[in-house]
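Journal club prep — side note

Before the paper discussion, L.F. wants everyone to see what a predicted structure for a comparable chain looks like in token form. Sequence:
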Amino acid sequence: LYKTFKSLKIKAEAFHSDLGQKEREDILLAFKNRRLPIIIGTDVLSRGIDVEGVDLVINYDVPGDPADYVHRIGRTARAATKGTAITLVNGRDKRKFDNIEKLIEKEVPRMTLPEHISTMEITHVEEKRPAHPRNNGKKKVWHKKKPKPSSPTS
């Protein structure tokens, strides 16, 4: 998703567990100070983060744990302000979303994507992943164990 936004020249940053603490703090500070309009985050971002003025959260996927949904959408509508949460749900996610509605004891209004959006293809520029520092980008070679010779039976 981040690569797609980047290829469309939409200012956004990815926020995930592979980032160092300093990188995470820098992204959050830029977001809080309105220098960064969009953060694309994993569940690492859903808890313990307090940013005023978040008025939209889009769940690209439905969390497996209904409590995670509550934490994700809790980023919006803080301190009696209004906010919107949109969750993209496909057929595979329906059961997970039903569990969310059971937890919050509320039916969430549904909307069907307009046809021009649901059939739209978005391409992005593929980038090579940086080499992992532990192995300098080299693939780990796995060797199969040779079978032990069978012992003669007496």
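L.F.'s comment for the group: DSSP finds five helices and four strands in the chain. Keep this in mind when we get to the figures.
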